[in-house]
Amino acid sequence: MNRDIIDTTLRPLLNRARKVWKAKGLPDIPWAELRSNEPKGAVREYTDHQVEAWKAELEPVPRFALHLLLTYGLRFGELFMKPSDINGEALELRLAGRYRKNGEELWIPLTAEDSRILTAMAGRAKAAKLATVLHTGEPATALTYHSLHDTLNKAARRAGLDMDRLIHGARHHAATRLLRKTGNLKKVKKLLGHATIVSTDRYAHVQTDDLRGDLEGMSRYSPEADADKKRDAQ
Questions:
Q1: Residue of 2, 36, 76, 152 with fewest CB within 10 Å of its CB?
Q2: How far apart are CA 132 and CA 176, in angstroms?
Q3: What's the whole-model pTM score?
Q4: Chain centroid offset of residue 156 CA
């Protein structure tokens, strides 16, 4: 079964029925067995032009939500953080375990600017007695899972992005960009909260591609390249 249908519609709907509507007798569904297999090692990286086009189609708060996905590799559900999940003094964000495969919470570092914005939003959300930080309007109204998911998807389509699983692709984008910048798989593992480096190893091909590019750049200064230049000049 399509993973997006499971993770953005069916499972949240049943969970809400249990927790909010107190529905009884609902089936305990083995979601892992129903998900379609994904190609191993499949990753995604959006171009700067694609990112800017996507952001340009969004209002400020959804745009900031997209920024968080593309920068920190959050799972979509992790956007719906509580005000108490923001530690402005430590510049950290707590990711609750309910969206993580190992069920453990994770603290990730924030840039000073993102921490400032999230701290301010958390303060307003707390004052308005909202359960989650992301909100819009006056009076403040919390963004919902499905409305934000729909907003991001529609904005991506307007921007010309037509890939499958666009929003989850932002997680891969964040990991790929960090690995390109640092060359350090352990830092990517920490950001994504993987239990083992094996899960992070799918991004290793980025290092191989970058290494190949470096070698090709070096080849332009090889003795053979110099000889070719001299022949071309004659």
A1: 36
A2: 28
A3: 0.73
A4: 15
The answer to whether residues 57 and 158 touch, using CB atoms and an 8 Å cutoff, is yes
**pLDDT tens for residues 96-150?**
766 666 667 888 999 999 999 999 999 999 999 999 999 999 899 999 999 999 9
Mention every residue, 6+ apart, whose C-beta is less than 8 A from residue 172.
42, 43, 44, 45, 73, 203
| Contact call for residues 52 and 66 (beta carbons, < 8 A) | no
User: Tokens in use for 201?
Assistant: 């190893």
Amino acid in the structure at residue 110: L
In sequence order, which residues have a C-beta less than 8 Å from that of residue 45 and are 6 or more positions away? 172, 173, 176, 177
Is residue 49 within 8 A of residue 159, CB to CB? The reply is no
- Asked if 53 contacts 41 with a C-beta cutoff of 8 angstroms, the reply is no
Sites in the chain below the pLDDT cut of 50:
1-2, 39-41
Decide: helix, strand or coil at residue 142.
strand
Scanning the structure block, which residue is given the tokens 């009884």? 24
CA atoms within 13 A on the CB side of 195: 6
Concatenating the DSSP letter of every residue in 10-70 gives IHHHHHHHHHTS---S-----HHHHSPPPPTT------HHHHHHHHHTS-HHHHHHHHHHH
Q: Which of 151, 156, 5, 135 is nearest to 81 (CA)?
A: 135
Beta strands in 41-164 (DSSP E): 86-87, 92-95, 106-109, 135-136, 141-142
Alpha-carbon span 10 to 3, nearest angstrom? 10
Three-point CA angle 77, 81, 83, nearest 5°: 170
Tokens of 38: 């994904």
